[in-house]
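Predict the 3D structure for this chain.
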Amino acid sequence: QYQLVESGGGLVQPGGSLRLSCAVSGFSLKDVVIGWFRKAPGKEREAVLCISNSGDTTHFADSMKGRFTIYRDNAKNTVYLQMNSLKPEDTAVYYCGADPILPLFCTSTETAYVYWGQGTQVTVSS
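Done. Predicted structure below.
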């Protein structure tokens, strides 16, 4: 059974940091692309970052470059999203998704991600 479970969300003050985790079961990180997406209130879900099966990473939004980083621990079958210098506009539900079809290539296309986690809420507020 394929499963993704996000954790690590919470309330943080502007300028603070959070590390989100996406624990994967049922397949290896070497066989999939893992992407992080977020959905803010009143907005569509947007792609944040992804990591391919070979470990290559791709940013999808300039607003997060230099602040957000994606990396993985193959032994733990977990992908992390490190978020620094958080802003109120980063408030959203963050989701991780898995694309097993084209694992070599990161994509921002939501429909490419077959499996999804339940999401974790991140709130940036003073």
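The CA atoms of residues 32 and 100 lie 4 Å apart.
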